[in-house]
Prior knowledge:
The complex is a heterodimer. By secondary structure, chain A is mostly beta strands. Helices cover 0% and strands 58% of the residues of chain A. By secondary structure, chain B is an all-beta fold. Chain B is built from no helices and eleven strands. In chain B, strands 2, 4, 5, 6, 9, 10 and 11 form a seven-stranded mixed sheet that branches. In chain B, a hairpin with a 5-residue loop joins β4 and β5. The radius of gyration of chain B is 14 Å and the shape is globular. The relative contact order of chain B is 0.33. The mean pLDDT of chain B is 94. Chains A and B meet through β5 and β9 of A and β5, β9 and β10 of B.
Amino acid sequence: KNEVEQSPQNLTAQEGEFITINCSYSVGISALHWLQQHPGGGIVSLFMLSSGKKKHGRLIATINIQEKHSSLHITASHPRDSAVYICAVKDPGTYKYIFGTGTRLKVLA
Amino acid sequence: NAGVTQTPKFRILKIGQSMTLQCTQDMNHNYMYWYRQDPGMGLKLIYYSVGAGITDKGEVPNGYNVSRSTTEDFPLRLELAAPSQTSVYFCASSYGTGARDTEAFFGQGTRLTVV
């Protein structure tokens, strides 16, 4: 079992739909990161969470430390949101990031 | 602008050639990382550093070397390039104190082809 599990692996949505991507982890962490990678593009950090909820534009990230679970929500999705979304945690013992397998999102116009 | 700067963005190498991928950050981050990403796959850790003068191997270190003589720079050296090293390479950095961590910043990537 991977230490960081993401679901779904692939997601196709219609423009305007509300999208949720889930991340569960089994290790102790100080923070969880959500990253975005457009096809053929670089990697951008969207959020870093250690508790509660953060919002940036149409993106909302939540984390429940007790349940070891985080969600990334996209409201009013748009084709430009099409990308791979990656959940990552840092192992506090080794300082290495542990990545989820990523969720490939495609938003259709 | 502050961030992680990687050079070059693209490179074609012949088998057996060597090269250095440069990575510089100006955020005084202590943690720096080198990853490779093969087509359609996730990030694999090559080497990482928790501070100047300290480096350690990741999952796939064979064929690579690194150094961290300063806080800002973390170059990745490829010796005797092989086709298996064709990949996109990303450098990343963050600041942490063990109990606390900051946002991770990634370079734009270096697309390397070995022919």
